[in-house]
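User: tokens in, sequence out, please.
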């Protein structure tokens, strides 16, 4: 099973997560979900793989989240899935799926390390300079 990342190239956390995947030598399947939005059914399946509540896949920092008052419990899971399908910017990112599992890699991109099948091949630092993996490919705690 290939590694898949639901990616927004404008997001530094998403870029860092993609970098960590590539640091294993693997080139993942990249789904730019803003260009290719997920359907309501695909989002429902993604939430099930992640084993998280639908609300955990929402991006609360997004302007539309506040405009629609999506933190209000009046919104059902079905409503929220429909809104994410209609407005993919509401989906939190990045999401990575591997044979070992699925993970929403926010707030920290290094969460992806828990589900990668291949080891890191060398040092890796996030865009802000924070070292995540040492020169031996070991996670820095």
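Assistant: Sequence out:
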């Amino acid at each position: 099973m290939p590694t898949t990342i639901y990616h927004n190239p404008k997001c530094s956390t998403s870029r860092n997560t993609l970098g960590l995947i590539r640091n294993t030598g693997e080139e993942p399947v990249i789904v730019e979900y803003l260009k290719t939005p997920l359907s309501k059914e695909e989002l429902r399946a993604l939430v099930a793989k992640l084993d998280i509540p639908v609300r955990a896949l929402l991006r609360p920092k997004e302007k539309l989240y506040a405009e629609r008052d999506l933190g209000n419990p009046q919104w059902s899971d079905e409503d929220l899935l429909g809104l994410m399908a209609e407005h993919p910017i509401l989906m939190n990112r990045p999401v990575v799926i591997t044979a070992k599992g699925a993970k929403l890699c926010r707030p920290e991109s290094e969460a992806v390390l828990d589900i990668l099948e291949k080891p890191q091949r060398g040092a890796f630092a996030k865009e802000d300079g924070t070292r995540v993996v040492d020169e031996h490919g070991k996670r820095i705690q």
